[in-house]
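Quick one: structure tokens for this chain, please?
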Amino acid sequence: MSDVVLFSTIESGDKLIAVATLNRPKVLNSLDLQMAEMLNQQLKQWEADDQVVAVILDAAGDKAFCAGGDISSVYQGMLENQSGEPLGNQYAVDFFSTEYRLDYYLHSYKKPVIVWGRGIVMGGGIGLLSGASHRIVSDDTRLAMPEVTIGLFPDVGGSWLLQRLSGNSGRFLAATGAIVGSDDALFTGLADYAMASEAWDDFVKALAAQVWPTYACKRRTRIERDDLIHDVLAQFARTAPRAEGPLQRHFALINEICDVRDYKRVYEGIATLAEHEDEWLSRAATTMLRGSAFAVALGLTLQDYTKHMSLKEVFELEYIVALHCSADGMFQEGVRALLIDKDRKPQWRYQSIEEVDINKVYEYFDAPWSEGDGRAFKL
């Protein structure tokens, strides 16, 4: 069996704590199709095992929990998709459906899921983190949804997650791909706890020493076990920022700029920050300006469009949008420039936000299958 994900258990009295470890540290534990398939399969087995009281999802190495989805194979599929149709890239069809099923499964998992988001947590890594019942980041973490740089949108449930962050911070993060640390992660709601990396092993040992409550009522059992984990975490982690991060410091300004529906006005407002004296704001605006204007419009429109959708509906729509992106050439060009040729000079189809028509954006929401088609994606 492949070792791209390692599975183990820790004895905890007469119970077990299950552990899944992403094991591709050389590529910052980027999630590929095989890893997602393995996680889906093993999580189902653990969910059915009464001995398993909780699941820990962590990663090998000290640099990253998960830097995102491994899109090199998606890119190869783009090159081979001569039809130009959204369903013409089979790897994209398989990868996004499997990844999104995994992310949605984590959100609805029947047992506590503890994710240790150490170091770099971006894109697909946030998809894994956000589904956990206990979302822990390290004090030196770097979180972002940087899809704008490759012509994609904040997917893996990002359309649902980002609009639920403090104020309009999710709109800003979607448009700019800005990186935040542990303080802003706690402030916005991207994470529940922050912990020093050196405290992790002690936390796991303390958790394994607990006596796990069990009741005839499964709902009560789940609540009590969630609270038990919280109480142990309270000994090692914090739930509030130690200091103001840059996002919190500029929260009022971000809210003001992003407090409109029109993606062109948001884009133009953020663009004015490119020369701001604050380095974090300036870098965020510059990243947006170098990224895909269409991706900014797409990501912001998705947050607006899905405002009253369930998480399930959001994932199903994001899948449709992701397939369109995998066939439109812009995502392909973004990956080429940033990850393949690494010239960092993407030739975007739309050179300015003024060129992006809202009706073109909405075309990406149209399913590429007819009613009753077996290829339709349903959770």
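The beta strands are 5-12, 15-22, 52-59, 64-66, 113-117, 120-122, 134-138, 142-144, 193-195, 237-238.
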